[in-house]
Amino acid sequence: MSAIPTPPSPLPAELTGPLAALGMQRTHKRRHEFLFHMGDPVYDRFYAIDSGYWKCGTVSLDGEQDVIAFHGKGGYLGLDELHAERRSYSAVALSNSTVLEFPIGRVLQAAEQDEALRQQLQTLLLQEIGRQHRIAQIQRSTRARQKIAAFLLELASMESAGGPPVPYFRLPMSRTDIAAFLGLGDTTVSREFQHLTQSGGISVQGRWLSVLDASQLQREAGQ
Description:
With 223 residues, the chain is of the alpha+beta class. The chain has two domains: 13-133, Jelly Rolls, CATH 2.60.120; 142-220, Arc Repressor Mutant, subunit A (Orthogonal Bundle). It has helices spanning 13-21, 104-113, 115-140, 144-160, 175-182, 186-198, 214-220; strands spanning 25-29, 34-36, 45-51, 54-59, 65-71, 76-77, 90-93, 97-103, 169-170, 202-205, 208-211. The strands form three sheets. It has a four-stranded antiparallel β-sheet. Strands 2-7-4-5 form a four-stranded antiparallel β-sheet. A three-stranded antiparallel β-sheet has the order 9-11-10. It is globular, with a radius of gyration of 18 Å. The model is unreliable at 1-9 (pLDDT under 50).
């Protein structure tokens, strides 16, 4: 296998310096460590993912777990709860991961005085809103195969993080987590993976996945 291209930083270089001056902190978490738990105070913080993958989810009173989102390099955690007092979900690392932590109050105050910073932040927010919209469309789909194909395309996009497409990548989440996120059964997910493999759309070895025919996945996803 050839080397996987290194995706770019989640933040433009011209933003990193100004945000660091406002109190940006780099936080490292090992696999299975939590960044925050459901019910934790928000503390006026949001996070940009510099490396790794995260799973966001909730736990009901009877202990049932629900996967509500996956986030990879270039994504954000906590942007949807900037005005909340407590976290409505938990975020756990699916791999050794690093996030950049920002004090949102100080960032917004600085953006009011700096037009370039404000425009950069608006661009980042619009990109994140667009990604969340694509994920919502995947979850609303009624066909299992369409959901799986669209989900794999989105994962490949997250893996490249705006750079060139990567030839292969490691699935950071289990198929059980994928099933929970897409509202499917474990058996259905395995069956659809098998179909996409046999039809030549993807190749799977353990958790390593190669997109062999992106156009086929796009057709299956209805794109």
